[in-house]
Amino acid sequence: LLEYADFAVDTGKTLCAAMLLPEERTDAFWTFLFPVICQLPSLTVLLPSNRRWRENRFTRHLTIGIMLPGVAQLLFIFLGGLVLEALEMGAEEQRHDELVAFMREVKNSSSPELYPKLVEQLGDPEAFPWRSWDIFGSTFFCFTLMTTIGYGTFAPSTTGGKLFTVFYTLVAIPFAAYTYGNAGSSITSLLFEPVVERRKRNLKLNFDFQKIDTDASGDVNEEEFTKALEHVQFVGRQAMLSRVEERLQDGKSLNKDEFESFVNDLVDIVGEQLQLALTVLLFFLITLLTAILYPALDSTRAPEDGLYFAIITFTTVGLGDLTMPYAGTRSLHQNFNFGNFLYISIGLALVGSVIGNLSNIVSLTRTSLKTAIQNKSKFVTGNLTRVFVEPGSDAKDSPPANELGAKPGAEDN
């Protein structure tokens, strides 16, 4: 393990030394590559011999669902940052030199009162740091591309930079959608699955078929079904009762298998709604924490600025008027590090999980009872065809009358 660590560190430092500015090599290594190197041993969970680790709920969600996608994303934006820095650095240096020359000319030819006002509005061109396209800024830019946040505080100006941005965006956005989808599902499952599953088990106990079928007919009619739902509270309950009345009117009913199939869908709906509520609660807790901590990071900002920043960022609106205070003594984006990356990624993953829960709830609510009724119709039609149409069928092959949906004692009719 020590030999592996030494090799990984030496390789990372060599890569940084070959492609980065001298003053940013050490910071770039410890900020981006070191977290990746630290998490690479988790790849061993994918080995065929570690099947037991993959089947463990905690290990599966933590490593395959959260850690490995995070490593892949961080490495992907770092490599994109290396390329964009190389493409944009020269053009940015040229623009900066032109700005410095222009401001010096204005300073020498204008009144002493005018120049300080220009510096106040435009900034001091000779102040350090001034680069946007160093490794920190370039990696930050790739992160905003991949997540579609797109603050727009700076953008590529060279032909190579623009073409690479187009290619990078087309690859990065589907990659981010896939990895954030897995991460969101794993985070909510890791935190809430025990609570949700316990709720689903307790709810399922309330739908015992023998208790619901009060007339012992072997089917559940509209009255019995409506009475069973009266004891269950969930969002959309009234709409579900209306669907019951519509679907089970005119004497229609559900047999045991069809009833249990619908109950499973109903339990899934309640489970999705509970997980949605817990996920929304966690999201707002993170948003509230941002509102509290944001003024501590930037003394010129108020808590409402933190709330505004969190919502605009997590929903990928990214207006660009307010970002995290990334500027440091060595780079304008020096404080964009693994912690910031992780924090924003968690917020994005939770938003994706909320959208997924809503989609599942709508889908299950629309199809649950409808599917049960359709299955009933197909089942009866198929058996009638087999009895009365198929040539050469013997009486012993015919299904019993109660299999066709008839009640006991109806054979003579």
Overview of this protein structure:
The protein has 413 residues and is mainly α. The chain has 13 helices and two strands. It has helices spanning 2-19, 25-39, 51-55, 57-109, 114-122, 135-146, 159-205, 209-212, 222-229, 237-247, 256-297, 303-314, 338-388; strands at residues 219-220, 254-255. The protein has a two-stranded antiparallel ribbon with strand order 1-2. The protein starts with a helix and ends in a 25-residue tail after the last helix.
What labels describe this entry?
413 residues, mainly alpha, two-stranded antiparallel sheet, 13 helices
Structural class comes to mainly alpha
Number of helices: 13
Q: List low-pLDDT spans.
A: 377-413
Q: SSE order in H/E notation?
A: HHHHHHHHEHHEHHH
Strand residues, percent: under 5%
Radius of gyration: 31 Å
Give a quick account of the main beta sheet: strands, pairing sense, barrel closure.
2 strands, antiparallel
Strand arrangement, major sheet: 1-2
- State the separation between the terminal residues, measured CA to CA: 80 Å
Instruction: Give the number of DSSP strands.
Output: 2
In short:
This protein is mainly alpha-helical and 413 residues long. The chain has helices spanning 2-19, 25-39, 51-55, 57-109, 114-122, 135-146, 159-205, 209-212, 222-229, 237-247, 256-297, 303-314, 338-388, and strands at 219-220, 254-255. The chain contains 13 helices and 2 strands; from the N terminus they run H-H-H-H-H-H-H-H-E-H-H-E-H-H-H.
SSE arrangement:
Layout: H1 2-19, H2 25-39, H3 51-55, H4 57-109, H5 114-122, H6 135-146, H7 159-205, H8 209-212, E1 219-220, H9 222-229, H10 237-247, E2 254-255, H11 256-297, H12 303-314, H13 338-388
Antiparallel strand pairs: 1-2
Helix pairs in contact: 1-2, 2-4, 4-6, 4-7, 7-11, 7-13, 9-10, 10-13, 11-12, 11-13
